[in-house]
Amino acid sequence: MEVFEKLVIERDRHVGMVTIRQSAETNVLDSSLTAELSSAFLTLNQDAAVRAVILKAEGESFLAGADLKEISGLSVSQAYGFAEKAKALQDLIIHSGKPYIAVVNGYCLGSGLELILTCDFRISGPDALYGMPEINLGLIPGGGGITRLQMMVGKAHATDLIYTGKLLEPEEALSIGLVRKVSDRPLEDALLIAESLANKSSLAFAVAKQLFSRPEADDSTLINQEMRAFSMMFDYPDSLEGIGAFLEQRQPVFKERREMST
């Protein structure tokens, strides 16, 4: 079995479990974790004995977004490459014929929220917080978050989250359909779902999932437009100021508005 630095793969009968290890700081989705998650998902997707996958994290957060130190100062082309890698990771879940279940604790923000939007089930712990705070950094979601969030919770809730950068507590996330259940024992509940699905016809589930994943109004095009718009933000000073202010623990001072062609 492949050895990872930032995650662990376990197998319990027909259920595969990917656990993001607690980092020295709050868990963030950097390039090395993206690569490891991609390898883990590919491994489990190809394992015929695994019929359901659970994704969870150690510590006090699930994923608090991208690593801002890593993306600060990216060029437009580098930012688009970052978005492409995020999309490729998500595609391993979307195009898998197996159910993916996210168990969420603590912060689930930005690219972390984008990742769980691609899972088939989302089980929330009572301490979870959900949000798309990119606007506070002079950015927008870069991995399909606008498109998928609107599809899942509707335009009104999606615009509220993305325009304001607000955080949702578990019960509000449940009320708008962002998560399936709020539980004091989210992992146990996820295992019950996984074991139930593992006993279903894997072919029937895969076909049903494929049909649910069909694009409406050409979502692939919409997400590609998001990726291009996200990467273009790195050609403007607001993103540099927003990320810099966050890393320096101060309030950002954004300059007057500049138009951008997407």
TrEMBL record:
Pfam families: ECH_1. InterPro entries: ClpP/crotonase-like_dom_sf, Enoyl-CoA_hydra/iso. SUPFAM superfamilies: ClpP/crotonase. One of its GO terms (molecular function) is catalytic activity. Gene3D superfamilies: 2-enoyl-CoA Hydratase, Chain A, domain 1 (3.90.226.10). GO terms for biological process: fatty acid beta-oxidation. CDD domains: crotonase-like. It comes from the Bacteria. PANTHER family: ENOYL-COA HYDRATASE, MITOCHONDRIAL (PTHR11941:SF54), ENOYL-COA HYDRATASE-RELATED (PTHR11941). This is Enoyl-CoA hydratase. It comes from Bhargavaea ginsengi. The lineage of its organism: Bacteria, Bacillati, Bacillota, Bacilli, Bacillales.
